[in-house]
Design brief:
Elements lengths: L1 H4 L3 E5 L1 H4 L5 H6 L1 H6 L4 E4 L4 E2 L14 E3 L10 H13 L3 E6 L3 E3 L3 H5 L6 E2 L2 E2 L9 E3 L4 H17 L3 E4 L7 H11 L7 E4 L4 H9 L7 H4 L5 E2 L5 H10 L4 H13 L6 E2 L16 H13 L2 E6 L27 H14 L7 E6 L9 E8 L4 E7 L5 E3 L8 E5 L4 E5 L3 E3 L3 E5 L2
Parallel strand pairs: 1-2, 1-14, 2-5, 5-10, 10-11, 11-12, 13-14
Antiparallel strand pairs: 3-4, 6-9, 7-8, 15-16, 16-17, 17-22, 18-21, 19-20, 19-22
Helix pairs in contact: 7-8, 13-14
Amino acid sequence: MKNELKTQTIYQVYVRNFSKEGTFKQVIEKLDYIKSLGTDILYLLPIHEIGIEGHKGSLGCPYSIKDYYSIAKELGTLDDFKELINETHNHGMKIMMDIVFNHTSRDSLLFKTHPEWFFKRDGKYTSKAGDWTDVYDMVHNKELDEYLSDNLVYWAKMGVDGFRFDVCSLIPMSFYKLARKKLNKVNRNIIFLGEAIEYNFTNFMRSQNYVADCDAELYQYFDLLYNYDSFPFLKDYIQLNKDIKEYKDYMYFEEALLPSNALRIRSFENHDQERLAKFLDKQQLRNLLAYSFFLKGTGFIYAGQETLNTNKPSLFDKDVISLDINDENKDYVEFVKLMIELKHNRKNKKLLTSSVIQNEKSDEELFIVDNVFEDQSHLLGIFNLSKTNSSLEFKEEKYFGKYKNLITNKTITIKEGYKVSEPLILRKIK
């Protein structure tokens, strides 16, 4: 499974805001389009009934769930969801659900029937994170874990191919061990994608003596994790124009900090983050996208990213994205398709490492990534995250020479001082 995931791309959909109607039926109507991008896995934000007590915005947050066995009526029926599963499979894609097992809505079925399973502080039910005012956190125990793992089995038997676990770092490892054991009897290839939390959140939770597992621990049971340990540094650069050196340095060490077969989704845009097109020009967007798809891991597109949406849709209200393709974005849509196609390259299954080269001579905003495969062949990726041309200079002459750029299929010669604007993915010509 891990080798397959190295070549695949996830497309994230928030059903409520994916269309004017906001239903499963409209997602089904868009499956041809989603597949045309090259998508391998369709990932849906939570689809369950949302709690009413303390809900946020006009419609409530999909991560404040009332009943894990329910379907939110505004999205459609259970039969509609089954049809979406079947049609997704008929389009040659897998389907993944968002799972929220750290907390429930304050009026959830579980809270009404088993209040002893919920977290208290100073005698009051609450969440461990202060701003999550519409939910109560759960306290995992054997009985609760049996209930929740059975819920995963229910959806897997229906045909769901994978689960994305919200704030997975806050759920005890014993739960994932149990869930894997049960799910292996249904589908041994079930995908586990974990939203591993940012380092500052991890440190805060641990300071309060709460569970907060690190990425290296989570990889015992997860196929994929978010890249949230490094992302804050990149976000500071994109949104606040801060120095990018800290991010670059971290990426150099990341490969050594994780298990050798560890994979990430290389997502810099999702439902929790601002749209990249709000801050970056087209050249930067192409470079950042190519960089994310070149790194070892699974490609990721949040619906509307490919059409250069600048508005971060509200989680709590009706806020429809635009998938209209026009003169302003059609070239970028085609570039997204090309990146997904290059990710599909079968040789990517044999990718061993994808390392950001520390290079003191090149401009700081120029990222040089060396991909090494099992046969010890290399692909070189060069990505300019700045708005201007950057000068490429190598400390080692082995990188000089003639290359084929797989993005344009043109031959170029890399030498001292080479100016980089558009992204380069290079195979050396002997």
